[in-house]
Each structure stands twice: as structure tokens, then as C-alpha cells.
Design a protein that fits this description.
The complex is a heterodimer. Chain A has 3 helices and 8 strands. By secondary structure, chain A is of the alpha/beta class. In chain B, helix 5 links the parallel strand 3 and strand 4. Chain B is elongated and about 70 Å long. Chains A and B meet through loops of A and helix 4 of B.
């Protein structure tokens, strides 16, 4: 029972509902729906609750740093349709915040704390945004490109 | 009367089940023969430590199989695995809660000197001796159960002959 990605056509259909905020990017396994940050929760609520989509499972939430922007990547899975969907949202380097997914999926709590801890992205609406892997008094965000590790002899 | 008859010969004392020794020697013998480790496995070396305690390699034949869950009852801290900065505080607290006399074995490359992860030094403590004093270092990634047993036997020698360790300190 392999997971199928949503086809580009299905993604395009989905994107049409949310134009101009949404667009389809990537090919094959890397196919994703890129949406504007302010309509992210709206899109996710739609794909989760709509009877035709039913992407009820958030299987992963992570973030990537590019030279121009930060990108939040959410992997959703529909058990009923046996399909995977990738949703991405971008944020500028200066205002590195995203809306929190905790209201839709409580499991996103720890995922967002890890992203905050290691990447330094804040999530508005998160009930307890604090470090999870590193000690609380640690300064800096190690997975950023500009983080310099301390050198031990 | 000949004088030599009044001096008891050592062989005859032993035949009468009497050994002349010092309290310190007896205590050292007792301590070295029944070390009670604290269950303090942090990472993969803990698997080898468990394996050493299990049937094939059997720590019980040395008297060391009694792993204690509480530091108050333990006298040996085997730091088996990678120590992260987040865990360093609790480990130090565990060490301080152990009553004297206590001993520490650093098991594995991570506990010795940070191991293969030392370059990612934002998480890994470069060697557990940065936090607590260590008596025996066991290299390996992970060290085989036999290596852990050899380390425990070295500790046994160290406990029985503390004067050797003390002499090195003054060098």
C-alpha cells in the first residue's frame, strides 16, 4: 500500500480555489502547493475538513531556509484517499513568523517548538513556544545558515 | 625459653583462619567486590552495558549485577553514551546525590571526549570529565561488553590500591 502524491492536475484544481494566493510547484514526488502565509490556515482547514479531500493527518511539519526567504513545509496525508499532499508557505527573512497549526492539529505543538528552537521561526497562536531540544538558556538557532558553532579544543 | 616460640608465625595464624590486615584494606576489598552501578545509560553504549549485565557476558560473576535505580543506593556511575548540554545538569545532580565513596566510569568515545559528535559542539559535551571527575575511561564505539568488564576490573584494582592513584596526584 504505497502512498500516492496528489497529481499536478488535482493540485491545480485545489490551487484554483485559492488564487491568487496559491500556486503549484515542483514535479513528481516534489509536487507541492505553495500558498501565501496569511491564507495558510484557511487552506489547511479546507483540505482537512472537506469531504472530497479529507487530509486529516499532519504527518510532518518542518522548515527550510533559502537565501531570500524561509519556507514552512507541511506534509499531509489522507487515510481515506491514501494520498499525500505537500503544502508550503513562505516568509521573509525579517518577519520570520508563521501561523500556528496547533488549532487544527494538536500534534503540531512539538513540531513547531522544534522549528522555533533550531530555526528561530515564531508561530503566532502557539500555546507554549519555547525550546524543546536545546537547553533553555542556549542562545542562537543552530540550523540557520549564519549560525557559527563554538569551537571546542 | 626460646624467644622465637613466643612470636606467632604467619602460616600458623592462617591455619587458624586469622588474617592480619588493616581496616582500610578490608573495606577496599569489600567495596571493590560489590560495586553497585547506577542505571545511567544515555545512548548506544547503554545497550552494550545491558548486554554485559545479561547472561552471555554476565556481570553477576563479579558482583556488579545489582544496578540501582536510585543514586542514593549506588556507588558507581557508568556514564554510557553521549552527554548533551541539556542532560549535563541532571547528570551532575545525580553524581552529587551519590554517597561517598563513589566512582565514575566513562564508557565509550562520547563519554570520554565527545566521540564522533564532538564537532557538533552546540549540543554535545566534549567528554564527561568536563562535568564530573572520572576514574576509568573505556574507549570504543561502543566498547564490547568484554571491554566494559575490563574497565570494571581496572576500577577494582584502583579501589584495592588507592595509594597508586594518590601517588600519581603528587607527581
Amino acid at each position: 500500500m504505497t502512498k500516492q502524491m496528489m497529481t499536478k492536475e488535482e493540485l491545480a484544481e485545489l490551487a484554483d480555489r485559492f488564487t491568487p494566493a496559491a500556486e503549484v510547484s515542483g514535479d513528481g514526488v516534489g509536487c507541492a502547493l505553495v500558498i501565501a502565509k496569511d491564507r495558510l490556515l484557511e487552506l489547511l482547514r479546507y483540505v482537512k475538513e472537506d469531504a472530497g479531500c479529507q487530509f486529516t493527518m499532519l504527518s510532518n511539519e518542518t522548515a527550510v531556509e533559502y537565501p531570500e526567504y524561509f519556507e514552512l513545509v507541511c506534509h499531509l496525508y489522507s487515510c481515506r484517499r491514501r494520498q499525500m499532499l505537500t503544502v508550503k508557505a513562505r516568509s521573509g527573512k525579517d518577519e520570520a513568523t508563521f501561523p500556528s497549526l496547533v488549532t487544527l492539529w494538536p500534534g503540531a505543538n512539538f513540531q513547531e517548538r522544534e522549528i522555533y528552537d533550531l530555526m528561530g521561526l515564531s508561530f503566532t497562536g502557539h500555546p507554549q513556544l519555547q525550546r524543546i531540544l536545546l537547553p533553555a538558556e542556549f542562545t542562537g538557532h543552530p540550523l540557520r545558515k549564519d549560525f557559527k558553532a563554538a569551537v571546542h579544543d | 625459653m626460646e624467644i622465637k616460640d613466643t612470636v606467632a608465625k604467619p602460616e600458623s595464624l592462617l591455619e587458624r583462619n586469622i588474617i592480619v590486615t588493616s581496616i582500610e584494606q578490608v573495606l577496599n576489598w569489600a567495596r571493590s567486590n560489590s560495586l553497585w552501578p547506577l542505571t545511567s545509560g544515555l545512548a548506544c553504549c547503554a545497550i552494550e552495558m545491558m548486554s554485559a549485565a545479561a547472561a552471555r557476558f554476565d556481570l553477576a560473576r563479579f558482583g556488579y549485577e545489582v544496578f540501582r535505580p536510585s543514586p542514593r543506593q549506588a556507588d558507581l556511575l557508568i556514564v554510557a553514551g553521549t552527554l548533551t548540554w541539556k542532560m549535563a545538569g541532571p547528570l551532575k545532580r545525580l553524581y552529587e546525590q551519590m554517597p561517598e565513596p563513589k566512582y565514575v566510569i566513562a564508557m565509550g568515545n562520547c563519554a570520554n571526549a565527545g566521540g564522533p559528535f564532538v564537532d557538533s559542539s552546540y549540543t554535545v559535551v566534549p567528554g564527561v570529565d568536563k562535568i564530573i571527575p572520572v576514574d576509568v575511561y573505556i574507549p570504543g564505539c561502543p566498547p564490547r561488553p568484554e571491554a566494559l568488564i575490563q574497565g570494571l576490573l581496572e576500577l577494582k584494582k584502583k579501589i584495592r590500591h588507592p595509594e597508586v592513584a594518590r601517588r600519581d596526584q603528587h607527581d
